[in-house]
Design a protein that fits this description.
By secondary structure, the protein is of the alpha/beta class. The strands form three sheets. It has a six-stranded parallel sheet. Strands 1-2 form a two-stranded parallel sheet. The two termini are about 25 Å apart. The chain has three domains: about 40 residues; about 190 residues, HAD superfamily/HAD-like (Rossmann fold); about 60 residues. It is about 40% helix and about 10% strand.
């Protein structure tokens, strides 16, 4: 039986109560420490819903597989019925850097070299950059190269990223996670990334994901006319702004024929979670985040989590 949001939230509270209770009842430092270690292991070993999940109460996340309707319009392969209180998910939007591929080292080195090339002698401090990794390019320029031209920095990165491509790492479980999404939702799977389009193409090719996503939305890329978009949030935008703005999510969902409220937003940074929350997605974090509706220990858990969602037919 798949637990509901409410049940998982209560089980989390119960584990906290057990640890605190052990200390209060005087079971000793050793017992208390053992209980605390048990709590940490429980948190890491399986998906646990954190603060944002409380807002969803006892609602279940149920999925509407692409296979639920055949060419004749008849419902097929529905495993479990849904209810009016369910959150029905019809597609997935993945972040890229830090979610599917490990690129922090590449970006830290590349931006440092770019800054020094442009006369910023201190370059980019690696630890300072770690704190803002995943933000749009214009924010990187604002923080580390104030006054520099964003297009010039982007052009430098586009020209030199390939020199570091041998350092690219596909995260364990990433390909399986995307495969699980495609197996369930078919063509209703997209990518939304703050990475420039030219570099995104390089990364997807290197990771063997270039033909996987039905739509790829990159920060700064041209948007379709606002009249073609399902959501008014990007109305009037000539270019797609990076996360935490919702432009890319609105665009990608529209191209998939969905509303953002029918999508999972899977990511690793607060920018992913903030954009997903603002767009109305169910947010899934693969790094610790108090902003997520669903917290996983890593992308390697996503496939199993998705396969164990209850399923229902569409409207």
């Amino acid at each position: 039986m798949v637990p509901s949001f409410g049940q998982l939230s209560r089980s989390w509270s119960g584990r906290v109560g057990i640890v605190v209770g052990a200390g209060v009842l005087g079971l000793g430092v050793g017992a208390f420490a053992a209980a605390a270690v048990g709590l940490v292991k429980a948190v890491v070993s399986r998906p646990v819903l954190v603060s944002k999940a409380m807002e969803m109460g006892a609602k279940r996340v149920v999925v509407v597989p692409a296979s639920t309707k055949g060419d004749d319009g008849q419902v097929r392969e529905v495993e479990e019925g849904g209810s009016d209180g369910d959150v029905k998910i019809l597609g997935v939007l993945f972040d890229m850097d830090g979610t599917l591929v490990e690129t922090f080292g590449i970006w830290a080195t590349l931006l440092d070299a770019c800054a020094k090339e442009m006369g910023y002698k201190d370059g980019v401090d690696r630890e300072a950059y770690r704190g803002v990794f995943g933000q749009p390019m214009e924010k990187n320029v604002e923080v580390f190269m104030p006054g520099a031209d964003v297009s010039a920095v982007t052009a430098y990165c586009n020209a030199h990223y390939g020199e570091y491509l041998d350092q690219l790492q596909v995260l364990d479980g990433a390909l399986e996670a995307v495969d699980a999404a495609v197996a369930l939702f078919g063509s209703r799977v997209g990518l939304v990334t703050n990475c420039p389009a030219a570099i995104t193409q390089l990364i997807l090719q290197a990771a063997k994901l270039e033909s996987t996503f039905s739509v790829v939305a990159c920060s700064g890329a041209e948007a379709v006319p606002a009249t073609q978009m399902l959501s008014p949030r990007a109305s009037g935008a000539r270019k797609l702004r990076g996360k935490p703005h919702t432009d890319m999510l609105d665009y990608a969902a529209a191209q998939l024929g969905l509303d953002t409220s029918e999508c999972l937003m899977v990511g690793d940074t607060r920018y992913d979670m903030l954009a997903g929350e603002a767009a109305g997605c169910v947010t899934v974090a693969v790094e610790p985040s108090p902003l997520a509706h669903v917290q996983l220990a890593g992308i390697e858990e996503f496939g199993a989590w998705l396969r164990h969602r209850p399923r229902t037919a569409g409207e």
